[in-house]
Amino acid sequence: MNALRATLGLLQRLLLPARPGALYDRQLVVLALSLMTVGLVIVASASIPEGIALAGDPFMFVKRHGMFLVMALGISWFVLQVPMARWQHYNGPMLLLAILMLVLVLLVGRSVNGSVRWLPLGPFNLQPAEFGKLALFVYLAGYLVRRQSEVRERFIGFMKPMAVLFLVAVLLLAQPDLGSVIVMFVTSLGMLFLAGARMVQFIGLILVGISAVVTLIIAEPYRMRRVTSFLDPWADPFGSGYQLTQSLMAFGRGSWLGEGLGNSIQKMEYLPEAHTDFVFAILGEELGYLGVLGALFLIFALAIKALKLGHQALVADKLYEGYLAIGIGIWFSFQTFVNVGAASGMMPTKGLTLPLVSYGGSSLIIMTVAVSMLIRIDFELRQASAQARVREVA
Question: Which residues form the signal peptide (predicted)?
């Protein structure tokens, strides 16, 4: 474990050298832009057959993805100008807006593959679940600051945010979107744990959560088929296990160095959702095991940076910024784990994107906003530290 940490630290210093006097963390920017670049390249490769089949345009999806990238970077510039105190002040209205959007999508949303998850806004389809994740974590960070002692000392303080999560979960399950509910549940538990909630409460809630997930899986035949196909996909390779077996074939063909960029066979409409939920399998097929390790290094380096930043903020007594940064770090790392686990057969498919890599405008924009918040938190910490040094000198 120590050797792994030393190796990761050496790679970080060599590839992403820190600059103590900078106004912002260049490593965060480089990591995010690197992931966006990887995503643009892999989406361009993986989506060519789908673009030809749907519109006769091999670059249809990469054009859209490029447009989403431009939108995400433009919105991120605006987010960088917003002080974190403003997010803390408006965390309640932001959550209410997310809940209204989740209700609205059930009323007038667009249905795709039996799920009603998108609000049609002309050429762009907005997925409220992605905004709901960020809104919940922004709200929960504010709640933990306001009610810190209540969360630590009283059961009701622990259950209030769980009640909010339950309301959001009900709306998401009506779409249905169990994957987003699980990500929200795990991230919220992590934030509450770090805020000092009692261990007994966690054990009870985890047991309730596991029981609820099992019940939801048993209640829906399609979820049950996903679980059974995940346990033994080769038992029905042309039915319920088709997607996973094709994904495993992609990883197998990739071997150590891959087939080469653009040379995937599975993307030729053998692997469904090759440019969205299963883009990691195409990455593995074309770039091999080394490419997979490189992509995972970038994502988890970003998550670790977020967790470290959250720790620094908590030490500096910036509780809101600390809880939010830690929440974003848990969110990114767990969603990556679920996406990669589904693509590699370690867990059932959940329909979650690979952060900053998969095709999908809503996910890309919201996760870019989250990274922008991390950069803003780091900027404010550096600014406060510089002012403190000036006061000490004076």
Answer: none
Q: Which two tokens stand for residue 355?
A: 């952060």
CA distance 220 to 179: 14
Residue 101 is predicted with a pLDDT of 92
Contact indicator for 42, 250 with CB cutoff of 8 Å: no
Please answer whether residues 363 and 133 qualify as being in contact, where contact means their C-beta atoms are separated by less than 8 angstroms: no
Task: Extract the tokens encoding 278.
Answer: 């299963």
Point out the residues of the chain with pLDDT beneath 50. Answer: 14
If phi over 0 gives left and psi between -120 and 50 gives alpha, with beta otherwise, what is residue 109? beta
For the segment 104-126, what is each residue's pLDDT rounded down to a tens digit? 988 887 776 667 788 887 777 88
How many angstroms separate the Cα of 279 from the Cα of each of 126, 193, 318? 20, 33, 37
Give pTM, 2 decimals.
0.89
Q: Is the dihedral of CA 137, 139, 145, 151 positive or negative?
A: negative
Please give the angle made by the CA atoms of 199, 204 and 209, to the nearest 5 degrees.
120
- The Cα–Cα gap between 4 and 157 comes to 39
**Which stretch of DSSP H or E encloses residue 329?**
helix 319-344
Q: Where are the domains of the chain?
A: 26-379
Tell me the Cα Rg of the chain: 21
Q: Evaluate the omega torsion of the peptide bond into residue 176 and state whether it is cis, within 30 degrees of 0.
A: yes
